[in-house]
Design a protein that fits this description.
- With 99 residues, this protein is an alpha+beta fold.
- The chain has a four-stranded antiparallel β-sheet with strand order 2-3-1-4, with helices on one face.
Length: 99
């Protein structure tokens, strides 16, 4: 699983100019089952996306496709982790690595 943390690198007005395209991009990856949760950070200097079921190379490609990235208004920090414990709602993405 991945935590995709994005930080705005441009004024909020430039970010908002890309918001509709970014939301459509999010919707596509929710529909495909890759994105599990997302939202704005507080304070509003970026956002966070939880993604699963893809490789690191795929998640990096997905981040590069974000309209925010393409417009140069954000930078991503991607952290991979093993979700060994989850709520029952996220049981499908729970991972059990070999010990």
């Amino acid at each position: 699983m991945f935590v995709m943390e994005l930080t705005y690198t441009a004024p909020i007005e430039a970010v908002e100019d890309q918001l509709d395209a970014h939301m459509a991009w999010l919707d596509g990856y929710y529909a495909s089952g890759v994105f599990l949760a997302s939202g704005r950070k507080i304070p509003r200097d970026g956002g966070v996306i939880l993604a699963g079921g893809v490789s690191r190379a795929e998640v990096e490609r997905i981040a590069a496709e974000d309209p925010f990235t393409m417009a140069g208004v954000c930078a991503y920090r991607i952290t991979e982790f093993i979700a060994t414990k989850t709520s029952s709602d996220l049981a499908a993405v729970r991972e059990n690595p070999a010990l």
